[in-house]
Design brief:
309 residues; alpha/beta; seven-stranded mixed β-sheet; six-stranded mixed β-sheet; 10 helices; 34% helix; globular; disordered N terminus
């Protein structure tokens, strides 16, 4: 009977040390990988509609959620209720947690939810809200607060003993409007009819770049700020759409982008995904999609309220 020769102690010790080093390096690598994982950025469509009332599509409102914080773009009708609904899946959208918002332009369908955004979360416990937007944002904020002055007085000086309502409103210029450790938000001009100033926004987060057009006719600014970008959120109307106004063709040409024009924009910008929002409901979703895809063969989707991308 033969027995294996015992390994020298020095060899056994070397193997043990090497194994320990391998395990330590592996654990260190896992630990570092865990700390480097970027927060997943979500796009949550709170409202995808237009001025036309719809029970399926509330007023325009889009949230970019990153690092446990929600950044709101526009606040159309029903924004706070939609945020409360979305919070069931995305806790950052609990209304009292929404503290930063951006306005693309001051049309009523994009801002009629502003008083709701100011007052409802405040009544529920939020203490501050900061809003960035085009020229006129500060003035609008001042007038909203004045319109509800008596409510503010009763709630702060009466038996509720509510804390002060603090709203920081900023008229911003094109360029970086906001920046923190998780997101940079860049405002850029877009042409929207007779509005002296309207913005699109680009959001840069650790894992995504997102461009929101706002309401606009075809814009070189959108293309420039989406070269490259992961997601382009853009309005679009069908060339066949009609609206009850004296000169709809002239109006739509100056204020909005057709599906054909959006296809051209996407072909130049080459985003990873195009999402169409601000839907009027006058044209079936399938038709809008087909009109864009006729000349653009990248990924395209139609947004619906409470969709998450």
């Amino acid at each position: 009977m033969t027995r294996p020769m015992p390994k020298p102690k020095s060899t056994m010790a070397s193997i043990a040390v090497a194994l320990a080093l391998v395990l330590a390096c592996a654990w260190h690598g896992v630990s570092r990988a865990q700390t480097k994982v970027a927060p997943k950025t979500q796009i949550v469509f709170l409202g995808t509609g237009s001025p036309r009332p719809s029970t399926d599509r509330f007023g325009p409102a889009t949230a970019i959620v990153v690092g446990g914080r929600a950044f709101l773009v526009d606040f159309g009708a029903g924004v706070v209720r939609r945020a409360a609904a979305a919070a069931q899946r995305t806790p950052a959208l609990e209304p009292t947690k929404i503290t930063t918002a951006f306005i693309t332009h001051l049309h009523s369908d994009h801002t009629v939810g502003y008083p709701d955004l100011i007052f409802t979360p405040w009544v529920m416990g939020r203490t501050e809200l900061t809003v960035y937007g085009p020229e006129g944002t500060e003035e609008m904020t001042k007038h909203v607060l004045e319109a509800w002055r008596r409510d503010i007085e009763i709630r702060t000086q009466g038996l509720e003993h509510r804390g002060a309502l603090v709203i920081h409103a900023h008229d911003v210029a094109p360029g970086v409007a906001y920046k923190d450790d998780q997101v940079k938000v860049t405002a850029f001009r877009v042409p929207h009819g007779q509005w002296p100033q309207a913005f699109g926004y680009r959001f840069d987060t650790p894992d995504r770049s997102i461009v929101i057009s706002g309401d606009t006719s075809p814009s070189e600014g959108v293309i420039a700020h989406c070269q490259p970008c992961d997601v382009l959120i853009h309005e679009a109307i069908s060339p066949t759409a009609k609206a009850p106004m004296p000169d709809w063709p002239a109006y739509s040409a100056h204020y909005h982008t057709t599906t054909e024009q959006l296809a051209d924009i996407a072909n130049h910008a080459k985003p990873g995904l195009v999402v169409i929002y601000h839907i009027s409901g006058r044209t079936p979703d399938e038709q809008l999609l087909a009109e864009v895809q006729k000349n653009y063969h990248g990924k395209v989707a139609i947004a619906h309220d409470l969709d998450v991308y």
